[in-house]
Amino acid sequence: MQGFGVDIGGSGIKGCLVDLEKGELVGERLRIETPQPALPDPVYGVVGRIVESFGWTGRIGVTFPGVMKQGVAHTAANVDRSWIGTDVDAGLGAHVPGTVETLNDADAAGLAEMRYGAGRDRKGVVLMLTFGTGIGSALFVDGHLVPNTEFGHIQVDGEDGEKRAAASAREREDLSYPEWAGRVDRYLDVLEAGVWPDLIIVGGGVSKKAHKWVPLLSTRTPVVPAQLQNDAGIVGAALAASERPDH
Ligand code: BGC
After folding, report:
1. Counting atoms of ligand 1 from 1, which one is nearest the CA of 104?
2. CATH assignment at residue 129
3. Which atom of ligand 1 is nearest to the CA of 10?
4. Ligand 1 centre from 153 Cα, in Å?
5. Is residue 114 assigned to a domain?
6. Residue 66 Cα, ligand 1 centroid: separation in angstroms?
7. In 3D, which of 124, 104, 99 has the Cα closest to residue 114?
8. Going by CA atoms, what residue is nearest to atom 10 of ligand 1?
9. Is the pTM of this model over 0.85?
10. Is residue 72 located within the same domain as residue 131?
11. The domain containing residue 154 runs over which residues?
């Protein structure tokens, strides 16, 4: 069975057909630069172009980098604030032929990892964290998602956690992997004071270099790198769209 997923990010918007049995992209994905400023209307237009280019007319899943409840964006930490309060399902629905299921980007990546990747068949409490421009989180209890956890924004030493420990902080401040791993370790220390997961899956582009920093972490919870990496958002979005009942 095939689905269709779109991943809306701060720099690129990516979409592809997805093989839902294997959890893999079918053919090449299409990536278009995110319009700047990334306001809702121009972003909807890009999503519409991507879906149209594949000739897909069915239901689509779309990720958004903020809290998403019943199709409405409630936060926008790293995108334009005009998204807050916007009914993204309805806005996108006007640009694509099928119905739209929107969800938080980390939740989508987590759904994909739990089904096809590092969290497959894992019971108990599993926490997926994505390290990119911000830090996204997805919490699973016996495989069920607790949506919209926003653990990127826990306070760490008086600062927003993601500000110091996201992958973007490493680039912005030109930190070595050991220096940045120290930041992540401190962030996870504070997070572990509040949640006791059985497994932490780390994703985002920086998970490709997991060997450079994951062994330096001193968490009590085992930490493993994500397996789907760049495609997790697209795959998870397509999965969510295919499995969630219409609302
Ligand atoms: C947002 C989350 C998002 C994460 C990764 C955070 O700043 O608050 O909703 O999942 O960035 O994009």
Report:
1. 10
2. 3.30.420.40
3. 12
4. 8
5. no
6. 5
7. 124
8. 136
9. yes
10. no
11. 121-226
Q: How far is the CA of 73 from the centre of ligand 1 (A)?
A: 12
- 116 CA to centre of ligand 1 in angstroms: 22
Contacts of 159 (CB under 8 A, 6+ apart): none
193 assigned to some structural domain: yes
- Of 135, 137, 151, 202, the one to substitute when testing ligand 1's pocket (max ligand atoms within 8 A of C-beta) is 135
**If you average pLDDT over residues 205-210, what whole number do you get?**
94
Q: Are residues 133 and 94 in the same domain?
A: no
pLDDT band of 245, cuts 50, 70, 90: low
**Are 8 and 101 found together in one domain?**
yes
- Domain assignment present for residue 203? The answer is yes
Span 75-121, pLDDT tens digits:
998 899 999 999 999 999 999 999 999 999 999 999 999 999 999 99
| Total domains present in the chain | 2
List the residue whose alpha carbon is closest to atom 1 of ligand 1: 66
Q: Are residues 168 and 153 in the same domain?
A: yes
Is 186 part of a structural domain of the chain?
yes
How far is ligand 1, taken at its centre, from the CA of residue 93, in Å? 23
Residues 138 and 192 in one domain: yes
